[in-house]
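Please go through the sequence line and token line underneath and see whether the fold suits the sequence. See right below:
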Amino acid sequence: MMRSPCVRIASGLALFRGVGERRVASAAREARLLRLGAGETLVRRGARLPGLCAVASGSLKRSVGARPRAERVLGLVAAGESFGEAAALLGAPSPFDAVAMTEAEVLAIPLEALALLRLDRRFAQNLVDRLAGEVLQLLAGIEAGMLQRAPQRLASYLCSLAGTGDTDGWRVRLPVSKTVVAALVGVKKETLSRLLRDLSERRLIAVSRRDITILDREQLAGLR
């Protein structure tokens, strides 16, 4: 039997890993696939999310802030990742704005699907793991904002793009504009440009538009 696009997308999500196909199909039966243009808003802070949400294609940013120049980006959501689980569980308003960075498709699963918490242990464990990871990520962000200076935050972000392993001479591409990167690390765009220039002059990185080559991973990661 041919699966609907919503069921196919839901089956690939980490939230449904290990969950039986019939239960996934039941949870996704009433799901909607929302299509967004670049820059289009899925939800504003204080409004209700359209359900349990996951990015099917493209990417979204989650942010807070009253004005664009005061915006703080909490994180990016890539294809295959879900978001807003806590608000969905509590039936609470969204604590962030969710805006498409590119053309994107978002799968919105009705809150009734959370009945799986009572029916499927694997789904419940997946959701607990997701929420626990979100808390740790949030705490890491708070710690970085309080204890790390801006150059350290930028260095940590660049190292995270490179992943693990021997990455000297490794080229990474900023997944979003420098304006959004600045909001991710908690600085103004002008400050980001100055920091990148400083790291380049110290021969830790080389910059070509949005392409960053890490020249000395060890020194970059240990920046003080």
Notes: The two ends are 58 Å apart (CA to CA). The mean pLDDT is 85. The first helix runs from residue 5 to 11.
